[in-house]
Design goal:
The chain is an alpha/beta fold and about 230 residues long. About 35% of the residues lie in helices and about 20% in strands. It binds cytidine-5'-monophosphate (C5P).
């Protein structure tokens, strides 16, 4: 089974209020992106990894990754203005022999190795899978004036995480369709489902949170310091 991993890392980090591109912020002495790549390596799926980087910072990313002592092959590809566009560019860069694609956010450095393996196994059975966790908060749908519109029943709600795993023809077709229909989503499983394909949910972890805000970064640093991850 030929598996290729795509790591979208082209986010600007505006919500993190960081001067550096988000994927390169320091997390306990290592850049966030390097921590995430090392986690993928530990899971045995880091081989010829495609990393989407901000187009105007390719040299800096190249320098950081070359200096990180990673013992697997990686390639930098310029990302786009939205996550979906970045992932699309990664898909276009896939070699032709690839059968399965793992997409994992650079901003999720603590993904448990067993979640990655379970997502691969579930995808192998139905063609597509995503890691997710059941929502513990009640989710409110509001209008643009911040008035409550409706409250979906919590027992059906899951918070989406990555990795997401797809058979290559399924994800290629989903991105082609999304581009053609100008459909934009914040994850890739949604594109696949929009075409009617089944997507299996696999239990994620609260440790697999996405580093988005300064508080997330602070909590991530504390988890490393206390030896929780
Ligand atoms: O923006 P969001 O928090 O959804 O980002 C999730 C992941 O997608 C991050 O790892 C980020 O670097 C990446 N991303 C990207 N290209 C963008 C925006 C986000 O590769 N234009």
């Amino acid at each position: 089974m030929s598996v290729q991993t795509i790591v979208p890392a082209a986010g600007a980090g505006t919500r993190l209020k960081s001067e550096k591109p988000k994927a390169l912020v320091d997390l306990g002495g290592k850049p966030l992106l390097v921590r995430t790549l090392l986690r993928l390596q530990k899971a045995g799926i880091a081989e010829d990894v495609i990393v989407l980087a901000p187009p105007d910072n390719l040299d800096l990313f190249q320098e950081v990754l070359e200096g990180a002592g990673l013992d697997f092959r990686w390639r930098l590809v310029p990302g786009g203005s939205e996550r979906q566009i970045s992932v699309s560019r990664g898909i276009e860069a896939l070699p032709s022999h690839v059968e399965w694609v793992v997409i994992h956010d650079a901003a999720r450095p603590f993904v448990p190795v067993n979640c990655i393996h379970q997502a691969l196994e579930a995808a192998r059975a139905v063609g597509a899978a995503t890691v997710a966790i059941p929502c513990t908060d009640t989710i409110l749908v509001a209008d643009s004036d911040c008035f409550l519109v409706e409250t979906p029943e919590r027992k059906h709600l899951w918070a989406c995480q990555t990795p997401q795993v797809f058979r290559v023809d399924i994800i290629v077709e989903a991105h082609r369709w999304a581009t053609e229909h100008r459909f934009l989503a914040t994850d890739d499983a949604t594109l696949v489902r929009s075409l009617g394909n089944p997507v299996r949910l696999v239990m994620g972890s609260t440790l697999n949170f996405k580093i988005t805000t300064p508080t997330d970064l602070l909590m991530a640093g504390l988890l490393i310091e206390r030896g929780f991850v």
